[in-house]
TrEMBL record:
Cited InterPro entries: Aliphatic_acid_kin_short-chain, Aliphatic_acid_kinase_CS, ATPase_NBD, Butyrate_kin
Localization annotation: Cytoplasm
Record-linked Pfam families: Acetate_kinase
Protein's GO biological process: acetate metabolic process
Protein name: Probable butyrate kinase
PROSITE patterns (UniProt xref): ACETATE_KINASE_1, ACETATE_KINASE_2
NCBIfam families for the chain: butyr_kinase, PRK03011.1-5
EC number: 2.7.2.7
Organism from which the protein derives: Lacticaseibacillus paracasei subsp. paracasei Lpp14
Catalytic activity: butanoate + ATP = butanoyl phosphate + ADP
Keyword Nucleotide-binding: yes
Domain of life (superkingdom): Bacteria
HAMAP family linked: Butyrate_kinase
GO molecular function terms attached to this record: acetate kinase activity; ATP binding; butyrate kinase activity
Gene: buk
Length: 373
């Protein structure tokens, strides 16, 4: 009699703005994980994010080749979801409509747009299904937060949803509180930067850095003086695609310091680079403003402020924020992300029939606007 090995291996793929993270889960546990940080020089070879697919896939295949599992043990593949149309939270099966919208970067360019395609390619290799979980476009904004200030333009959410929610749940549990009944501000400080007010389990407001809101980040512009920006767009005759690229991936620390790595920038400061210090301080200053704004959204009733993402490893970033924001609430630092675990759990909830699998339908909008249009 032939013995069939148990299918209990899930491969998790998470393309970030400046890194690719890959993990292997077996029988409920993460047994291997690798983070590859990509330099500006490496990423600059590609005109569009979607063109990075083969480059990122190579890293995935190298990781998989180093792991000890057989193809017949693979149960499913999870990828970080991309900038789809605004959708409810949940686990979505990768389908053609999703891949088409992401390949066309209908909403905008973003590294996470690669997640579904990479996951599907790896899933095909093992003859299993691919899923994405709680993509960055999960939109729980409260009605007042949607108003922009100009009729015809509405605000929409884009955030590190997976990590913000996972960190909030974890930190609140250590405080004896639940996510569903608490008020939290989470600042994810990575290649992009998203800072949101969470109230009773929902992300009710926060910045959409992809569309040019909030603090500048390693790559993103954040909010700009609009008249000067529009004058630049007109003077340089920029197309909408060029504007989106400029705001989301060619601004922020990259534009001031020609670097997207906060780790490098902290090292430059340690060697006496005053310019690097000035612009890192500027980013920290803007983060502080955004967190205080979210405290206003929550009427100052904040259980905890959480600083997370790769840059939360840098004390140069977290120490001033902990000091300056202590008047609002305790400031807890949780460096890195829990996205890999959250992706795995999302897929397992569907495979264990605890939650229905969601089906993505094509983004019917014909106007190529920002993440919300
Ligand atoms: N040990 C460290 N010390 C200081 N900074 C670090 C450290 N590790 C990572 N970083 C910084 O964290 C940033 C990347 O964070 P993260 O991995 O959360 O983002 P990402 O996945 O590339 O992008 P995103 O999630 O926004 O799409 C980089 O600027 C990197 O230099
Ligand atoms: C993940 C969406 C937010 C950002 O990257 O700026």
């Amino acid at each position: 009699m032939t013995m069939h090995p148990k299918r209990d291996v899930v491969i998790v793929i998470n393309p970030g703005s400046t890194s690719s993270k890959i993990a292997l889960f077996k029988a409920g546990k993460m047994v291997a994980e690798r983070t590859l940080n990509h330099s500006l020089a490496e990423l600059s070879q590609f005109d569009a994010v979607i063109a990075q697919k083969d480059f990122r896939m190579q890293a995935i295949q190298e990781f998989l080749a180093d792991q000890d599992f057989s193809a017949s043990e693979v149960l499913a593949v999870a990828g970080r979801g991309g900038l789809l149309k605004p959708i409810p939270g949940g686990t979505y099966a990768v389908n053609e409509a999703m891949l088409d919208d992401l390949t066309a970067a209908k909403r905008n360019e973003h590294a996470s747009n690669l997640g579904a395609g990479l996951a599907q390619q790896v899933a095909d290799q093992y003859g299993v299904k691919a899923y994405v979980v709680d993509p960055p476009v999960v939109d729980e904004l409260q009605p007042l937060a949607r108003i922009s200030g100009l009729k015809g333009i509405e605000r929409h959410s884009a955030a590190h949803v997976l990590n913000q929610k996972a960190m909030a749940r974890q930190v609140l549990a250590t405080m004896g509180k639940t996510y569903a009944t608490s008020r939290v501000i989470v600042a994810h400080i990575g290649g992009g930067l998203s800072i949101h007010a969470h109230e009773n389990g929902r992300m009710i407001d926060g910045n959409n850095g992809i569309d040019g809101e909030g603090p500048y980040s390693p790559e993103r512009a954040g909010s700009l003086p609009l008249v000067d920006f529009v004058a630049k767009v007109l003077a340089e005759r920029l197309t909408l695609d060029q504007v989106k690229k400029l705001l989301a991936s060619q601004s922020g620390l990259r534009s001031y310091l020609n670097d997207i790595s906060i780790k490098n920038i902290v090292a430059r400061i340690a060697e006496g680079d005053e310019t690097a210090k000035f612009y890192l301080d500027g980013m920290i200053y803007q983060i502080k403003k955004q967190i205080a704004e979210m405290a206003g959204v929550l009427n100052g009733q904040v259980d905890v402020i959480i600083l997370t993402g790769g840059a939360a490893y840098a004390t140069a970033v977290t120490a001033p924020l902990q000091h300056d924001l202590a008047w609002i609430a305790p400031v807890v630092v949780r460096p890195g992300e829990m996205e890999m675990q959250a992706l795995y759990e999302g897929v397992m909830r569907v495979l264990n029939h605890e939650e229905p699998v969601r089906v993505y339908q094509s983004d019917a909008s014909t106007i190529k606007g920002g993440t919300g249009r």
